Amino acid sequence: MKSSTQPPDDILVCDTTAVRYFTLVDQLDLLAGLSDGRIRVPREIFDPGEDLTLPEDLLSEIGRTERYWARKKGPSAGMHWSRFRALRLRTDIEVIDLTLAEANIAAEVTGRNYLRQFGRAGRLGKGEASVIALVESRKWVAVVDDAAARDILLGRATNARVFTTTEVLRRAAFQGSVTSPMAEQIYQTMRQFGYWGPEHLWVV
Amino acid sequence: MPDLGSRLAAARERAGFSQEEVALVLGQPRPVISNWEGGQRTPPAHQLARLASVYRVELQALLGEKQQPRPNLELLLFRDASDHLEPRAKYEMQRFLRLLDDYGDLLEALKEPPGLTDAPLQLKEGFQTKEDIRRKAEEARDFLRIGREGPVGDLAALLDVSGIALVTAPLGKDLMASVSGAFVPHHRVGFAILVNGDTQPGRRRFTTAHELAHALFHGDRPYVAFPRRPEAFERFADLFAAEFLVPAAGLRSVAERLGFDRITDAEVVVHLQRYFDVSYATMLSRLKATGLIKEEDREQLRNVQPVYVAHQLGYSVSDEEWGQEEVPWGFEALPRRLVRLLRRAIREQLITVSSAAAITGLAEDEVEELVHDRPTEPAQVAELEVLNSAAG
């Protein structure tokens, strides 16, 4: 049942960072709980049917992550790999294919020099570009941590709603899906895995 | 304006791929590619993005937007390699060029100069005698300031400080269907070397030195290396690599210090191989060239397992040398300067982690690890799991 703190029509579409960190801390259910029990991701981010023997840069972003943990050494690498591997078995992950019109939006924002107008170098990743295209076209809510992607999204669609992983975790606590100390604990573990964010979930 | 199918076919042909080859790279049946190009089916968006990567074009170009043409380096490389490239190797060479394009964009955005752009040393026609090669190797060592007789040391670091980008990629173990390396003078990055990472470490080192010869003495166009190329410039690069890595004078002087004027023992060959950091085969060839082993001993010396000998002599033998582990792909395979620039740009918030992942083709996890040292075993994982189980 949805809590009163969550608007009824939120359909979240997630970028790689959120999926990655909630998977690493084994709390993906929290992400599903914030939408309608579904975790929506573009196929550029997660493609359960993909051939993992493809060249690394042709894999989905989670596919690359899975391969990274497969080749990484260390006592916990196998556990992390298995968590990403297990994503293929989840039935609550809905993989979204972009329409040709949405692919055009993604193509535009991944253009070589597109980020320069936002004072940044490099190019946007395919995953974020797909999330931007879906939010712009379907008016969904984005879960995006990448600052460049958020800038682009808000520049293109001023009414767009964007959450970060931190905000998702806070909302999960507001909803009562997780206690406040537990949310802090999860957050600190994410930070230990490398998540960039404030020192604490609740205190700035 | 041509339709999507025609644009796909034109982009594929410009990139030098057949439909069959694209199908193999993408893991699709060939008729799928044919149907996409014939307009019978529209490729899904994620496959369009993959095709843009394979053809080294912007996705926008495939979708119909006019784009600035870029130098068609791949055709030069593929033409040079002729039938030596299986589709996956072809793709990896294309990916190498794409990496250089993005690297060039990054240099421009960060207002950083390119690396080495002109061959610093001269080579006249017909330089092929032992003495010519020795002098050219000496010139190269003087230019790099590494002394004339000793081991070269960290070759990747030498290239890095000389402004030459070094990339390692899995081009395939079978050199009959692939290449050992390539040299590309990129218009914005400067000189760049690609080395086949599927070969043994000693072979990779030799290839790197071979391509270094093109950078130092040629530098005018792309070159592709594969075994038994007959052209004079490739022969020169091979002879240069051998003399550069193991200078004849340096080898004789070490042998003399050790008290050998004729080497018949594999253990001595392994000591010398490890000292100069080359493959056992290269060391045998250099010892033969300097007259330190005789033809009759060579055959016997070939019939040893140098890895076992090295292990018995107490040398550290990597898993890769034992043939037990794949080459670790990741940042180690990329130009060191690019990695430094990415780290700096991420820390200064000029580029995001996901952009760096998009440029390098690596996982975001790996990029994050580059920027801040992430513990491999977060202490709180265990604690969290206790909390999880307590919460039911």
Detailed description of the structure:
- The complex is a heterodimer of chains A (204) and B (392).
- Chain A is mainly alpha-helical and 204 residues long.
- Chain A has a single domain (12-192), classed as 5'-nuclease (Rossmann fold, 3-Layer(aba) Sandwich), CATH 3.40.50.1010.
- Chain A is built from nine helices and five strands.
- In chain A, strand 4, helix 7 (147-156) and strand 5 (162-163) form a beta-alpha-beta unit.
- In chain A, helix 1 crosses helix 2, helix 2 crosses helix 8 and helix 8 (165-175) packs antiparallel against helix 9 (180-192).
- The longest helix of chain A has 13 residues, at 126-138.
- The longest helix of chain B is centred in the first third of the chain and has 23 residues, at 87-109.
- Chain B has a four-stranded mixed sheet with strand order 1-3-2-4, sandwiched between helices.
- Chain B has four domains: 1-69, 434 Repressor (Amino-terminal Domain) (Orthogonal Bundle), CATH 1.10.260.40; 107-244, Arc Repressor Mutant, subunit A (Orthogonal Bundle), CATH 1.10.10; 248-322, no CATH class; 331-390, 434 Repressor (Amino-terminal Domain).
- The model of chain B is unreliable at 375-380 (pLDDT under 50).
- Chain B is mostly helical and 392 residues long.
- Chain B has 21 helices and four strands.
- The chains are: A mainly alpha (204), B mainly alpha (392).
- The interface between A and B is large, with 72 and 66 residues.
